[in-house]
């Protein structure tokens, strides 16, 4: 079974950047649709970004469009989340997740955490204003 190891969280100033990494252990990320999610204290977990394949479709939450980019390095079996122009509202624990690809239905559920079967441990991002 695939295991996911997320890292890269840190404390940064507003306006700064971070890059989160998610390594797929025991299996290859390229076999799965991958997503990044976050959960702030007292809030529900929300989908941030998702990737269908390394060169395929992506989807972003409106709150991060134009600031966050999801990408994959197939050689390193890693999925990244590049986060730019961070704000205090981006403060949360970030999780990566994987699910089987579902063809044309993928896009509509790309940011739905209930459709992801495998989860990594979170990595904390704290943005101070």
Distinctive features:
single chain; 129 residues; mainly beta; seven-stranded mixed β-sheet; four-stranded antiparallel β-sheet; 1 helix; 3% helix
Describe this structure in words.
The relative contact order is 0.32. 3% of the residues lie in helices and 47% in strands. Strands 2, 4, 5, 6, 9, 10 and 11 form a seven-stranded mixed β-sheet that branches. A hairpin with a 6-residue loop joins strand 5 and strand 6. It contains one helix and eleven strands; from the N terminus they run βββββββββαββ. The chain is mainly β and 129 residues long. The radius of gyration is 14 Å and the shape is globular.
Provide a quick synopsis of the model.
By secondary structure, the protein is mostly beta strands. It is 3% helix and 47% strand.
* Termini separation: 40 Å
Count of runs of 4 or more consecutive helical residues? 1
Tell me, briefly, the overall form: globular
Global mean pLDDT: 94
Rg, Cα atoms, Å? 14 Å
Task: Report the order of strands and helices.
Answer: EEEEEEEEEHEE
What are the segments in which pLDDT stays under 50 over at least 5 consecutive residues? none
Spell out the blueprint of helices and strands.
Elements lengths: L2 E5 L3 E3 L4 E8 L7 E7 L6 E6 L6 E3 L7 E6 L4 E6 L8 E8 L6 H4 L8 E2 L3 E6 L1
Parallel strand pairs: 2-11
Antiparallel strand pairs: 1-3, 3-8, 4-5, 4-9, 5-6, 7-8, 9-10, 9-11
């Amino acid at each position: 079974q695939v295991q996911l190891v997320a890292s890269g969280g840190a404390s940064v100033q507003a306006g700064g950047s971070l890059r989160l990494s998610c390594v797929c252990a025991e299996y290859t990320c390229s076999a799965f649709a991958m997503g990044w999610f976050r959960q702030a204290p007292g809030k529900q977990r929300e989908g941030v970004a998702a990737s269908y394949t390394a060169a395929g479709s992506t989807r972003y939450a409106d709150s991060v469009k134009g600031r966050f980019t999801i990408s994959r390095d197939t050689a390193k079996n890693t999925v990244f989340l590049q986060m730019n122009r961070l704000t205090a509202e981006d403060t949360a624990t970030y999780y990566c997740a994987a699910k089987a690809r579902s063809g044309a239905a993928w896009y509509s559920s790309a940011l739905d955490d209930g459709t992801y079967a495998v989860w990594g441990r979170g990595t904390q991002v704290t943005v101070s204003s």
